[in-house]
Each structure stands twice: as structure tokens, then as C-alpha cells.
Amino acid sequence: RCGVLRSSGRRVTVVLGAVAMMASRVILTTRLVAFALVLWLCSWSSGAQTDDPLDRPVIHVAQVDALIHPASAEFVTQTLDAADAAGSALVVLVLRTPGGLVDSTRDINTAIIRSRTPVVVFVGPSGARAASAGFLITIAADIAAMAPGTHIGAAHPVGGTGQPMDETMAEKAASDVAAYARSLAGQRGRNVELAEKAVTDSESFTEAEALSATPPLIDFIVDDLEELLETLDGRMVTRWDGGTEILRTAGARVEHIEMNWRQRLLSAVAHPQIAVLLFSLGTLGLTIELWSPGAILPGVVGGLSLLLAFFAFQILPVNYVGLLLVLFGLVLLVLEMITTSFGALAVGGAVSMVLGLVMLIDSPAPEFQLGWGFILAVLAAMGAAVSLLARLGVRAQFQAPVTGAAGMVNETGEVIDAIVPGVVGRVLTHGEIWLATAVQPLDQGERVRVVGIDGMTLTVSPEVPVGPESEGT
After folding, report:
1. How far does CA 184 lie from the centroid of its chain?
2. pTM, two decimal places
3. What DSSP string describes 430-444?
4. How far apart are CA 184 and CA 113, in angstroms?
């Protein structure tokens, strides 16, 4: 028995040992699997963080589709400052403009030069242009690109009034802007000769001509913003100070920047048609206020409209002879309301306004032209307004008086005290008790009509009933 017990004990010991070894292997395997799972989760987490949109490079895109004036210059400057503050990888200015003010152009270029973020100017889409001030902004950018079917150039300076400057002033202005264009083109490694010709000779260049020049005026031609970003990825850009930077645009997060409400308002006001409407409305409003003091609303609207119109006229190439003709025409239309000219003043005002609107904007650019449809519509609207006011004025002249002594005549009333010829009695009329006389006896309670007034005493007569019976007697 003891031998059997020893043999069974050995077997139990061997079995227990095998079980212990298997358990340790299972625990080790479980730990290895858990460790591998942790490593996989860490690698997946890091990969997810890499694909997080918030960690991708940011590109700011702003569209400048307006005249270059203080409002658009402020918008571009704010866009570049915001990109610098956010650490953006790139700023793309999609430019479409017929030109604008030289001072505002210099402000935009100064903001581009001092920007820590690389700036790309893209003239697009197809059919767009960057003329005059837009040309100077294009060659000032770190990278200049154009879409097929676009053009740049024609940067010769003109006077703020649209009138030709005298020879000396024109030469000085052209020389100043030409030197500015040469400076920008030379620093950016672009064609200095063509940049100067765009100013002095008003030359324009298609996208193919700008790229094929030696050296070129632009860097490349692309169809749209998506192709632009693909082309820029991995490209080395030379900044204004000579430093270089590699652009990373693959998988970038694009943020479109819009003008605020104030900038949109000022840009809209700077349109020639809006400026003319504001000027006409302002002049008419102030005229109505002066004609009828105390109306308040026409004066307020007129004043605000004129101020906005004058802001626009500072930007637009306005011919002030045309502006004076428009103003003179408005004055003639207003005089037609208060004088009897049998339409002569109205006709003269209409002719003056048409001539003034035709020559108001002195620029060959289509964006500045008012067009006959707009001119005739404005003339019709002003004529309708003046006709309505004149009709109201004429109608007021023919209305019976309702106040004063004249307003008492033909009022009806009732006799309070009987009236005897030569003796003063009393009547109730117009809500008041008056002394009254009559040429015939009138009994108490009889209805009477006022036929005259002398001081504070009325002259009355029996009220004549109106109707067929009275007409036949």
C-alpha cells in the first residue's frame, strides 16, 4: 500500500507541475497579446491625430472682386494679419479688379511685403482681369498665377477726377508709378521692362504673354484654386527679404475669408450706379426738407445719401462737369414743382441730367460705364417723383382754407339767440359760440351758413339746402 501511495503521489506531482507550466505559458501569452494590443492602440491613436483636420496646414483664401479703395485695402490687410496670427501656411488672394487708388494699392502691397505668411495672387477665374492697380498687386506677390483667358496691365495713372492731367503732372505721376513697378518687379525677379511698359505705355498682357516673357511676369498658369494648391505643394518660394520657404499645401484645410458688413457696404457704395443713385436721392431729399421744413426724414436720408455719394466720388474717376450737369438738372426739376413754366424747366432738367450722366464717369472700362438703360431708368424715376410732388403741391393750392378767417366762410351753424337785422345775436358754429348779424330775421334754432366775417362778428344767412328742390326754386 505504501508503494502504491508513493507512486500515486509522484503522478499527482507530475500532473500538478504540468498544469502549472501550462498556466504560466497562458499568462505570458496573455501579457504579450495585451502589450501588442496597447502598442497597436497607441499607433492608431497617433495616426488618428495625424489625420485630424485641426492639425493640417491652414490656407486662407480671400476674394478681391471690386475696385481697389480703402475698404478693399482694409480687407486685405486684415486677412494677412489674421493669417499671421493663426500661423497659416499660405494666403491666396483671388483678384479681379479694373483698378483703383494708388494709395490703397500701396497699402495692400505694404501688407503683402511685411506679411510673415507667403502670399499668392491668383487672377481668376477665366475671363477676369487685374488691370491698373491690380497689376501692381500681382507683381508684388510672393507667387503670381493667372487662369487661362485672363490679362493684366494697363497701369498708367489717371487723375482722381478722370480728367487728363496737365503734361507736367502726368509725367510726374507716370514716372512715380513706373519706378514703383520697377522696384516691385526687380525685387520679385520679374520682368522689369514689361512692368514699366504697363505703366508708361498702358500695355496689357495675356496669361501666355506674361508667362512666356524672359524673365516672366507671373509664375504659372492654373485653371482653378484646386489646381493652384496642387501646383504649389513642395514649391520653394523666395520672400521679399531673400529668405526661402517650402510650401506644404497637400491636404491643407482651406478657409475662405469674407468682408465684414461695413466693408461690403463701402464696396457696394463705390459702384458708379450706386453712387449716382445716392447722389440723386440725397439732392432730392434735402430739397424736400428745405421746401417743407420739419419733415426730418427726407433731410436725414438726403444727408446720409450725399455723404455716401461723396465717398464714392473720391474713388471713382468722376468728371465734375458731368456732376454739375446732373445737379443742375435736379435743380430745374425741383423748380418745376414750385413755378409755372408749362414744362420748360422739366424738359431742361431732363436734358441736363441725361448729358451729365453720360459724361459723369470718364473711363473706358466697362465696369465704370452707367449704360443707357440705367440712365433712362434714373431719369424716369426722378421725373415720376417730381411729378408726384408737383401734383400734390398743385392740389394743395386748390384746397379750401381750413384755418383762420377764410376757414370760417361757408361753415354751417345754429342760431342760439334770435337775430334781427341791425341787432347782434349769437350762433353756434365750428364748435364755438360767435356773435353774428344777418340781413333778414333768423329764429332761434334755425340753421344758418357763414357768409362773411368782420373781426369777431360773423355775417350769416339761412342755410340753403342742397338738392333738386333747392335747385328748382
Report:
1. 30
2. 0.64
3. TTEEEEEE-SS-B-T
4. 10
